[in-house]
# Entry
Amino acid sequence: MENVKYTSRRLAEIFGITQREVAEILGRRDKFGTADLGKLRKAVRKPVPAYPHRRQLFLNFKGGTGKTSLSTSYAYRLAERGYRVLVIDLDSQGHATRCLGEAGGNFTKTLYDVLVRKATVTEVTIDTKLPGLRLIPSNLAMSTMDLALMPMAGREFKLRNALREVEADYDFVVMDAPPSFGLLNLNALMAAHDLVTPVLADFLSYDGLRLLFETIQGLEEDLSHQLENIFICVNGFNQTFRIAREAVDALREHYPEYLLKSVVRQCTKFAQASSEGCPVFGYDPDSKGAADIEAMQLEVLERIKIGLAARPDAARSVR
# Structure
């Protein structure tokens, strides 16, 4: 993410100050980067709404839904808001790692070392170029994870137990999962508070959703784990396609309590941003893709807040 540049206008929007104040604090009027975000945060001290520690999993058993572009941009925007965010790349292909500007092959330690070799989460976590955003990278070393977990006792809870040690260090943990069902994704589901499921506006997406909800029901019955929130997010939406409109109508009919009202429209900026090794907010924050993820994130956070308000026992702050 070294190529991410900010304008004074964008920084002013993020912190709710004027462009003149941005220039005064940073001592210049242009050529701002991610490091300047941290400097402004220390100077402005803009508070963010507090949430209990949240672990959020982006997962769909169907591939090609744009899950990684959504999850990394979602996490990046949380960090821009001022939250302490940890991204966990669960996919051995390391796409989330690359979307955050890192090369997975450069790292000798991944989540495999935590769950199998008993390393700590802190040992395998790296800093990204954006202040407040950290990453557990992934590479091909993760490809044998399910086999390694198979003979272990308590294998379904390895990730949840490992993350307890860093619970106080992060406001949000965002997990990007591969489109498959195995022990690693089972671990992620058992660790998650919230599940975000990106779907395309086509009827093939129903197969992935059906299998996912069957799995979730099994977790509730067999392992006594219930997700606090499930969010279905329509991705790659094109209003001009009749089949897309019909698919969204069908989702509204069958999954009304889970489907987000905001949709993420088809946008070429996602692919362009990924090729540059940065989320869409770092590549083109004025794009429709960035605007749609902004709306999606605000809706998710609002629904979480409403859910917490209904639970008087829930902690109100992680700070």
Notes: The two ends are 28 Å apart (CA to CA). The chain has two domains: 1-46, 49-309. The first strand starts at residue 54 and ends at 58. Confidence is low (pLDDT under 50) at residues 315-319.
